[in-house]
Amino acid sequence: MRKKNFFAVEGMIKAQQVTGDLPASKNVYRNFFKMAWPSAMEALLVGLVGSVDTMMVGTIGTNAITAVGVTHQPKLILLAVIFSLNTGITAVTALGTHFQTSQVVLSGCLRGAGDTSFVAITSFISVAVIRPTLTWLLCYPLGFGLHGAWITLLLDQFFRMATSMKRFSGGKWTTIKL
After folding, report:
1. If you compute the radius of gyration of the chain from its CA atoms, what whole number of angstroms results?
2. From CA 116, how far away is CA 178, in angstroms rounded?
3. How far apart are CA 93 and CA 145, in angstroms?
4. What pLDDT is stored for residue 134 in this prediction?
5. Rounded to an integer, what distance in angstroms lies between the CA atom of residue 144 and that of residue 157?
6. Could you tell me which residues come within 8 angstroms of residue 123 by beta carbon, excluding any fewer than 6 positions away?
7. Separation CA 70–CA 153 (nearest Å)
8. Torsion of CA 167, 172, 177, 178, to 10 degrees
9. Alpha helices in the chain (DSSP H)
10. Low-confidence spans in the chain with pLDDT less than 50
11. What is the Cα–Cα distance from 43 to 171, expressed in whole angstroms?
12. Domain residue ranges in the chain
């Protein structure tokens, strides 16, 4: 039995999910570091500035060190909130992208088969009725704010994917005469 290399691209994707040539692991990691190093350097710089501030005022006295430490706490709390929001938004976006891609492909197939009315009606209902209503409901009365808008976007893409998938699976589009 072949041992799977956890860090290789091939080890991250199931064989049945592969539809073409995979990029070399070396290229994937090169692109990853190319994109990530500026953020890592920024975080390092922010931490370094805090340390330098503390060292510079360290000779002034304990009150000065305390003042510098206290001013860094809100910044660290804010950074933790921003990092957690980024993680959440990335997850929602990734899931939404899957739903969106699926619904675009399925809707395109239905349109190509002549089932244009169904796609237009479900898109209209979703984009003009469901999405604005849910966005308002989640953002304001329920107090989710921006998260509510992202959740609604996800639900909209899921609804359109599910309705297109149901229509496609039902096969009604095969009886349309072009």
Report:
1. 25
2. 11
3. 16
4. 95
5. 19
6. 107, 160
7. 39
8. 20
9. 9-12, 25-58, 62-112, 116-124, 131-139, 146-170
10. 1
11. 53
12. 91-178
Q: Give the separation between CA 67 and CA 71, rounded to whole angstroms.
A: 6
Q: How many CB atoms lie within 10 A of CB 157?
A: 22
Let me know how long the chain is.
178
- CA dihedral sign, ordered 73, 74, 79, 85: positive
Tokens of 112: 């190509």
**Is 12:25 a contact under the CB 8 Å cutoff?**
no
The count of other CB atoms within 10 Å of the CB of residue 50 is 16
Please report the pLDDT score of residue 3 as a whole number: 58
Q: Which structure tokens are listed for 147?
A: 């998260």
Please state whether 4 falls in left (phi above 0), alpha (psi between -120 and 50) or beta.
Answer: beta
pLDDT (0 to 100) of residue 130? 93
Tell me the backbone φ, ψ of residue 160, rounded to 5 degrees. -70, -35
d(CA 102, CA 90): 18
Residue type, 23: P
